[in-house]
Amino acid sequence: MPDGLPAQPQGLRLRNRRAVLSAIRRLRRAARVDVARDTGISAATVTSITAELVAEGLVEEVLDEAPEPGERGGARGRPRVLLRVRPDAFLVCGAKISEDHITVTLMDFEGGEQLNHVARMPRGSDSAAPVAGHLRAAVAEALTLLGRDFGALDCLGVGLPGFLEASRRLVHWSPCFRARDVDFGALLDEAFPCPVFLDNDANLAALAEQWFGYGKGVPEFLVVTIEHGVGMGIVLDHKLYRGGRGIGAEFGHTKVELDGALCRCGQRGCLEAYVADYALLREATTALDLGARPVDRQAELDALFAAAKAGDAMALSIFNRAGRMFSLALANLVNIFDPALIIFSGEQMRYDFLYGTRVLDQMRDNALCLDRPPPEVRVHKWGDRLWAMGAAALAIDGLTDRVLGSRANDQSESRPGRTGPSAPAY
Ligand SMILES: [Zn+2]
């Protein structure tokens, strides 16, 4: 539709179909009246749309397992008919690419996890093509473990660390390969026979929290991830916010010190240059005499943490400095977004110095408090599985848009979801 024209009924219909399907997925089991209440769409329209979704094989009716008591004498009434997203309508895959491994999850259309698989990947690829190849192999392994093949896969969502534009699937920079400004989407389309969606891995952590974690039903929240880098996902009004040009929320590269420590991005004073694992190891290399370059960075980090816990003054000073920098940056977030909830998510959360009482107190001291309590802070120590689940949620979201869009444009043809060998209808 050309810009500037008012929305056509077709667009409204598509939005309503999407809202109804999303509500059914979020509520898991929902009566039509619940869907109408949740979406604000009239009961008559909900009834019409759900009839379409059932006919198309995207939604199915189930009997309420715990029906309301009957009106007389507490006897059990007739079971209510509820709606659920039909799990076997589609099979999707979510994959999180890290620097040396790939985590894959296979998920049904309702969001139920079918299988989780981790595959190793050699570090230090110059170009992105080998990474796409390793990804294909990892997904193939997962499908084989589930007794399926690429013919059964309807959609793939991929999470990658770095600076990337999700809408163009363009990777400006990623620690997973040395090439810059890569059209990773083209490589993914060559490698996979199904639609592939790509996003920054921290955005996928936010999606995972929204679909499966502490962010469920919360309209506004922030997810801060600390792993090899520092990332952030922003959910505003129930939607992931990616910034005006698609590469926003780079919390790790907000500046906490003028002309400070050197960051991987090439600039100085970024938060990440103080709290990411490479920053801690850089300090530890000097403080604990670890040699020029740690061989096993996880083991070295664990050793540093153990030394701090045992009271080693040098190790403690490294973590305390990182904690102070982190609290300062968090206070800036609180002042900008005024979030009700901040979720700390990721592997590094086992190092409790980043969310200990002292850090949160410092955050509150530096934030404007007015007369309201500070935001709730929750810690989620999920590993890479969380990110892969977020990638699968991205795939379900993208696939849903395509399926609903194609069917809204072709009302005369009602095609079922995947019920067997037939091709998916997008
Ligand atoms: Zn930076």
Topology:
Blueprint: H1 9-27, H2 32-39, H3 43-55, E1 59-63, E2 81-85, E3 91-97, E4 101-108, E5 113-120, H4 129-145, E6 155-160, E7 163-165, E8 170-173, E9 182-183, H5 184-191, E10 196-200, H6 201-212, E11 221-226, E12 230-236, E13 239-241, H7 272-275, H8 277-287, H9 297-309, H10 313-337, E14 341-345, H11 357-366, E15 376-380, H12 384-408
Parallel strand pairs: 3-6, 6-10, 11-14, 14-15
Antiparallel strand pairs: 1-2, 3-4, 4-5, 7-8, 8-9, 11-12, 12-13
Helix pairs in contact: 1-2, 1-3, 1-12, 2-3, 4-5, 6-12, 8-9, 8-10, 9-10, 10-11
The structure holds zinc ion.
Provide keyphrases for this structure.
disordered C terminus, Arc Repressor Mutant, subunit A, binds zinc ion, disordered N terminus, Nucleotidyltransferase, domain 5, 426 residues, 12 helices, alpha/beta
Helix content class:
25-40%
Shape: globular
| Biggest sheet descriptor | 5 strands, mixed
| CATH topology term of the largest domain | Nucleotidyltransferase, domain 5
CATH class group of the largest domain: Alpha Beta
Query: What is the name of the CATH architecture of the largest domain?
Result: 2-Layer Sandwich
How many structural domains are formed by the residues?
A: 3
What multimeric state do the chains show? single chain
Strand order of the largest sheet: 5-4-3-6-10
User: Rg to the nearest angstrom?
Assistant: 24 Å
Helix vs. strand class: alpha/beta
Distance between the termini: 19 Å
List SSEs in N-to-C order: HHHEEEEEHEEEEHEHEEEHHHHEHEH
CATH superfamily of the largest domain: ATPase, nucleotide binding domain
Number of helices: 12
Beta-strand content estimate: 15-25%
Query: How many β-strand runs?
Result: 15
Residue windows where pLDDT falls under 50 for at least 5 positions: 1-8, 411-426
Report mean pLDDT, rounded to a whole number: 85
Spell out which ligands are present: zinc ion
